[in-house]
Specification:
Blueprint (H helix, E strand, L loop, with lengths): L3 E3 L15 E3 L1 E5 L1 H4 L7 E6 L5 E5 L12 H12 L4 E3 L6 E3 L7
Antiparallel strand pairs: 1-2, 3-4, 4-5, 6-7
């Protein structure tokens, strides 16, 4: 099953084995790119569920900012967006990581 991996890259952009945080259970990304200023600074989590499907949730669903917003609409928009996202954020070290899940080594 594919997973998210936090690893460093060499000068050619190739992953360096056994570097970074390794396998991580989710990646973070910001909503600005699909929600413009409405979601600027609002983070989402992308993870792979037990069936191998990509899922998205609000990083902080209890945040008062969500009051008055249609969260299910924005989760759907986030899911569509993350499928084509190249770079996300590691939740452990906050470095950029490949946003697309891949087979573990």
């Amino acid at each position: 099953m594919k997973v998210f991996i936090c690893d460093d890259a060499d000068d050619s952009g190739n992953p360096i084995p056994d570097s970074g945080c390794g396998v991580i259970d989710h990646v973070l990304f910001e909503g600005y790119d699909f929600g413009d200023r409405l979601l600027e600074g609002v983070k989402f989590k992308a993870r792979i569920d037990s069936d191998g499907h990509l899922t998205v949730e609000a990083a902080d669903p209890e945040d008062d900012y969500w009051k008055g917003l249609n969260m299910s609409h924005w989760i759907g928009q986030a899911l569509d967006f993350v499928r084509d996202l190249d770079v996300a954020e590691c939740p452990k070290c906050m470095h950029e990581v490949d946003a697309q899940p891949r087979e573990p080594r």
